[in-house]
Amino acid sequence: MHVLVVEDDAAVRHLMRRALDREGFAVVEAGDGAEALRASERERFQVAIVDIGLPDMSGLELIDGLRRLFDDLHVIIVSGAGSEVERVRGIVAGADDYMVKPVSLRELAARVVAVERRRSPRGGAVPSERERALVVRFGTIVVDVHARRVTDGGRPIDLTRREFDLLSYLTLHPGVSMSRERLLEVVWSSSATWQSPSTVTEHVRRLRSKIEVDAAKPRWLTTVRGVGYRFDPDPATAPDQEAGHGQDAAPAPGTTAAPAAIDGVPTGRVGPGNGSAQEQRALDDDLRRGLAEDEFEVHYLPVLDLAERRVLAVEALVRWQHPERGLLEPSAFLDAAERSGLMIDLGIHVMDAACRQLRVWRQAGHDLHVAVNVSARQLADVALPERIESLMVANAVPVGSLWLEVSEETLAVEPDVASSVLERTEMLGACMVIDDFGAGGGASLAQLQRFPIHALKIDRTFVDDLDTNPSSRAIARSIVSLGRDLGVVVIAEGIETRAQLERLRSMGCRFGQGYLFGRPEPAERLAIDPSP
Questions:
Q1: Is 521 among the residues known to form the active site?
Q2: Who is most buried in 7, 24, 96, 138, counting CB within 10 A?
């Protein structure tokens, strides 16, 4: 199916295209109404996604022109205005659907898929390339989502339609705890108001009798005490949620239980020089208390356009306002947070604060982006995309405004895990930034091709001695050139002198950050318009 995307913001247009490309659609982009009409004379489209505010004409005028060309065109209007009047105007003008910015790319793709399904001559679903590949395996059991078939050792398992829907939904969201109310909503398209949550309990009981060796001691479909149910693809890494005994007992409220290892992802440094086991446990307890008492705060370091001397973005950096030790830098506690699994909760705390602050800045008229660091532990959290989506929606974060910084080393450790999670977050409109690029021990250039990269950050070690080390200059220049060839933003880290600034400008590096422009500050003290 052919889709026309008409959006004057090139970054948003590109993200929309990538989301639709993944579903197997043929996508044509247009930056204004005239370009859209020219494309429509060359090609026939079944769906048009139209921004209502175009530079050369209104989206409503464009719809009228497109309707003259295609009687059966399905039009989805995208607008920053969400009032009832605007929606009515769009529908009267001929729109079939309406989405308010910031648009969820996953929802947009789902709406276009729904159009394709309705137009299928069979009246059924037309699978995308991604859907055709949805086969989940655990133990000897294989779940073919598109074929709606489940086998155990090659032998079919007889499931009712609802049992299959429940199993496929849980297996496609491994490791994510689902309440019975949530499962009613997404699997039954109902709610506790109309249907009893015990319906879910009964279907889980039936499923266990068909897929578990011992339904009384489930291995795959586990009960999460006080929450609901979860599908665990690798029970060796899952705590005993049902019994809640011994070392695997449920964690304290507000924290996340941590497995000893997650698919080989390092969980923090433990060993000589990092304190005794007793000291580590004391620090872990202190971290939990600090999270519960809201002692962690976020400071912001500006990222500047080096040519125009304006702030493009800010990097969110966590600090711990300890009641006895004062303000602590990340080096004092991040390793412990990563090792203990508390990094997941701490990371979401930072991201939540950053998204809320971004909304404040944008409402004040500052067109900023915010960058948040993501650790190996967070990347191993299968629920990370859902957490990010919740924060973006709650704070009306525009597409492309949230940057996720992942170190090159983290990407090299588990590229498959990272690629899967980051592709899902990109569908939500978040952008990926590779931190500490070129520092060594990281991902190869061949591996980097598989990631949806938005920006590269030149590691500060190359910036430190730009004036004295020819090798550092050559590497920095090569990274700038690589970014230009890949079409991604390049940001220099650790700029502390005017000489470094001028050297980077001469290389063509447009963006940078460092103490030359100011140290990390709380939002209320941050200078949005510094003058280096």
A1: no
A2: 7
Q: Is the peptide bond preceding residue 102 cis, with omega within 30 degrees of 0? A: yes
Instruction: Give one DSSP letter per residue of 389-403, joined into a string.
Output: HHHHHHTTPPTT-EE
Backbone phi, psi, residue 247, to 5° = -70, -15
108 and 158 assigned to the same domain: no
406 alpha-carbon distance from chain centroid: 12
Mean of pLDDT values over 288-313: 92
> pTM of whole model > 0.70?
no
Do both 234 and 285 map to the same domain?
no
**pLDDT number for residue 83:** 54
* 355-394 b/e (C-beta count within 10 Å ≥ 16 → b): bebbbebbeeeeebbbbbbbbbbbbbbbbbbebbbebbee
Distant-in-sequence, close-in-space partners of 114: CB < 8 Å, separation ≥ 6: none
In this structure, what CATH number is given to the domain that contains residue 292? 3.20.20.450
Dihedral angle, C-alpha 472, 520, 385, 18, nearest 10 °: -50
The answer to whether residues 25 and 66 touch, using CB atoms and an 8 Å cutoff, is no
Considering the domain architecture, whether residues 326 and 467 belong to the same structural domain is answered as yes
DSSP-assigned states of every residue in 287-306: HHHHHHTT-EEEEEEEEEET
Enter the tokens of residue 499.
Answer: 């000489």
pLDDT above 70 for 389: yes
Question: 359 to each of 147, 154, 313, how far by Cα in Å?
Answer: 43, 52, 13
Q: What is the mean pLDDT of the chain?
A: 79
For residue 213, the domain's CATH number is: 1.10.10.10
Nearest to 507 by CA among 470, 480, 471: 480
Give pLDDT tens digits for 159-193: 887 888 888 888 877 777 778 877 876 676 554 44
Domain carrying residue 457: 278-523
CB atoms inside a 10 Å sphere around CB 176? 16
Same domain? 115 vs 141: no
List C-alpha distances in Å: 241 to 178, 250, 251, 426, 444.
13, 6, 10, 32, 39
426, 493, 521, 524: which one is catalytic?
493
How far, in Å, CA of 261 to CA of 280, rounded? 17
Indicate whether 334 pLDDT > 50. Answer: yes
492: helix, coil or strand? strand
Residue 3 DSSP code: E
The CATH number of the domain where 88 resides is what? Answer: 3.40.50.2300
Q: List the structure tokens of 402.
A: 């949230």
Domain ends where: 248, 264, 296? Answer: 248
Report whether pLDDT(33) > 90. Answer: yes
pLDDT digits (tens, 9 = 90+) for 102-111: 777 777 888 8
Q: Which residue has the higher pLDDT, 60 or 321?
A: 321
DSSP state of 332: G
For residue 272, being part of any structural domain is answered with: no
With left for phi above 0 and alpha for psi between -120 and 50, is residue 461 left, alpha or beta?
Answer: alpha
